[in-house]
Structure formats: structure tokens, C-alpha cells
Amino acid sequence: MLKGLDPRLNAEVLFALRAMGHGDALVIADTNFPSDQVARATVLGKLLRMDNLTAAEAVEAVLSVLPLDTFVEDFAGRMEIVGEPATVPPVQAEVQAAIDRAEGRPRPMVGIERFAFYDQARAAYAVIQTGERRFYGCFILRKGVIPPDA
Prior knowledge:
Layout: H1 11-19, E1 25-29, H2 35-39, E2 47-50, H3 55-63, E3 76-79, H4 90-103, E4 110-112, H5 114-122, E5 126-130, E6 139-142
Parallel strand pairs: 1-5, 2-5, 3-4
Antiparallel strand pairs: 1-6, 3-6
Helix pairs in contact: 3-4
């Protein structure tokens, strides 16, 4: 246990978050996502796990230390439901609320078509698989920067 860090963040996840650079993408996936296979294609090359958490809990923990990119529109993306791209299921609404809390204002995620999501996930820095069992609990977060002191 360390002071000032969310205890839901394990050492492997903290290592990856620290190693990522500005603009690098992080996938947070549900239990049905082919996480291990996709993770092998990422920069990190191995799967990270936060098995005991929902997608929203994992996003909340990650965003306690990870700044989101403010320079791009796709700072956060959600996997669209096949045939219903505008539908936002409860799992995605919960993650959107976690993003809004972390950012201190509404910052809507972009929708990403399912197969485009897989392609973007393979190009990500890392994949974290959660214990989320609801469908479409898959997200991509883009790391931002921490500005210098004034």
C-alpha cells in the first residue's frame, strides 16, 4: 500500500501508466474482449488485469493518476453497439460519468465501430482487462500531459 495512490491500481498497471507517453492509448476492456490476443500486439506486449473491478471502477482508478489528452477529440472512446452506434448502454454511461468527474466537466467520449475498435486497440500502448461482465464495456483512453507549475 502506498499513500496517495488508489489501492485498486496494482504495480503492473502503475508501471504501464507511468511508462506511457503523451498521446499513447490505453484500452480498458470487459471480460468478453479478446484481451490477451490484442494485448500481444500492443507496445507493452502483455495483458494487464484488474479482474475484481467493473469498467467504471477501473477507469476511475486509472484517471486518479492518468491525465487525459486535451489536444484531441478522441481522448476517450467507447466501442459502439453493433447496429446501434448511438446507443449508450449503462456500462458506458457509468464510464462517461467517471470521465466527467475526473475532468471536472462533461467531456463526451467518441464512438468507435467494433472492428475499428479492435484495430485501434492493437495499436495501443497496453490493454487492461477488467471483471466487467456487461457487454460493450470496452474503452480507449489517450494519455495527456501534466503542465509545468505556473
